[in-house]
Every structure is written in C-alpha cells, then in structure tokens.
Specification:
9 helices, NAD(P)-bd_dom, NAD(P)-bd_dom_sf, two-stranded parallel sheet, 7-stranded parallel β-sheet, photosynthesis, Rossmann fold, Nucleotide-diphosphate-sugar epimerase, photosystem ii, 11 strands
Length: about 260
C-alpha cells in the first residue's frame, strides 16, 4: 500500500538508495534538506534539523518518517536533531518512525556513538510507534577512510581493530522493507558477510588501486580503542549482508587511479 513518507538525509549515501527504492515501490516521497533542488522525482521540503526550521511543515501529513540524517563531525548534532524531529512527529501524530543506527553504540564511548545511542533512547521514550535498525559500517565509509589514509607513504594501522563492512544498497533495501511494515521496535542488527582487520582493509584497497604503501601497526590506548578491539561493532552470526567488500571495490576502484581518489 502506498504511503506518504518523509526522509531526512535523503540525499546522503544511504538516503539515495532508500529514496530510489521507495519511489520504485510507488510511495509518495518527500525529502527534508537544507539545499533544495527542483529537478527531483520526489517532493523537496526546505528545512534544517539543527535549527528546527521547516521541520513541522515537512512532517505534516507523513504516514512514516525515515530518519537517516546524521552529522558525525558535530558533537550533539544527531541527538538535538532527533529531539526536534520527534517533537514535530508527536505534534503531527506520525504513525511510524524508522531510525538507522550503528552496531555497538551502547558499548563504545566514542562521542558519535554515544549520540546515536542517546537518539535511540529519545525515540524509544517518545511514545511514537518506531523501528530501529543498527548496522555495521558501510562499504562506502570504509573506502573513504582507506583512500584518505593512502595519501601518505607510511600509513598507521590501529592494532586489533576489526570491521564488518556492509553494502549500502542492501541496507537501503532493508530500510525500505521496514518502512512498509508496521512498527517493530529494535530489529535484529545487520552486518556484512565478512570481518576484516583494519590492516586487511587497507591492503585490499591498495591491491585494488595498484599502489604500495608501508603499513605500520600502531597500538592505540583508551576506552574507544579497547571497544573496537573487543569487537562491539560486529554482528554475531549471520548479519544478513551478502555483497562482499571485494565485489564493491571491483566496481569502485580501478588499478592506476590516483591514490586517494
């Protein structure tokens, strides 16, 4: 059944996959954005979760809200934006709020993870029907980080850190299915099909790009590093992801490309 669905973060890495799938499924999609464009197949609503401008107008009439917007660089941005969105959704009587989060946010003191966990708690205490999906790191994020580090001839590699990258398109497919269903609370975590050390991820990028770099293992102290070494960011058992990181790299990285691009 067709719904009216508001998407925050609809132009982001995950958002473009989600919006595309929602449109294919016949839903009426509107996207809250600070930089509205006119040439889109969906309705654009100018607004800003940081200030609250335009949020009530964006939420009005939406059957479901998919909250994908995030800002890992600004402390507190995700929590405050979620609070504003929840308040607007409660005023509008929104029937379903779907939120994307990260595996391990309740067990890692990294400020961004703590904000994500606090945002989860705001949603859970809101009284709104909700669904929360936690996933591991996206392929796109892992590639972005390894590309940045590869600009240096000598690359520091955190010792003991492991990751389970997942395909963004598969997460988008799962999120779209959750939006179409009823509120399900916290659903099972989603993760990629393989677990890699940080060093293995760096080597895979360098091999795909045809570059050589010196990798230097670095022991990183502190509680955040300890959490990554414990594997709080990993999904136990089958995380549901199918597309491998190698397949992703084969599509995105070509031998001979300038390093870091």
């Amino acid at each position: 059944m067709s719904q009216s669905i508001l998407v925050t973060g609809g132009t982001g890495t995950l958002g473009v996959h989600v919006v595309g799938r929602l449109l294919e499924a016949g839903h009426l999609v509107r996207v809250l954005t600070r930089s509205p464009r006119l040439d889109t197949p969906y309705t654009v609503v100018a607004g800003d979760l940081t200030s609250g401008a335009g949020v009530d107008e964006a939420v009005a009439g939406a059957d479901t809200i998919m909250h994908l917007a995030t800002d890992p660089m600004v402390m507190g941005a995700d929590l405050e934006g979620t609070r504003r969105l929840v308040e607007a959704a409660r005023r509008a009587g929104t029937a379903h709020l779907v939120f994307i989060s990260i595996v391990g946010v309740d067990r890692n003191p990294y400020f961004y993870y703590r904000a994500k966990h606090a945002a989860e708690r705001v949603i859970e205490a809101s009284g709104l029907p909700y669904t929360i999906l936690r996933t591991t790191q996206f392929h796109d994020l892992v590639l972005y980080v390894t590309r940045k580090l590869a600009r240096r001839p000598v690359m520091p590699v955190p010792m003991g850190w492991r990751f389970q990258p997942i395909d963004t398109g598969e997460v988008g497919e799962r999120m779209t299915a959750l939006a179409a269903g009823g509120a399900a609370g916290r659903v099972p975590d989603m993760g990629g099909p393989e677990i890699f050390t940080f060093r293995e991820l760096m080597n895979r990028y360098l091999a795909a790009a045809g570059w050589r770099r010196t990798l230097v293992p670095v022991p990183i102290p502190g509680r955040i590093s300890a959490a990554f070494r414990r594997g709080v960011q990993l999904v136990e058992g089958d995380g549901g992801g199918r597309r491998t990181y190698g397949a992703f790299l084969a599509d995105r990285v070509k031998p001979g490309q300038p390093v870091g691009r």
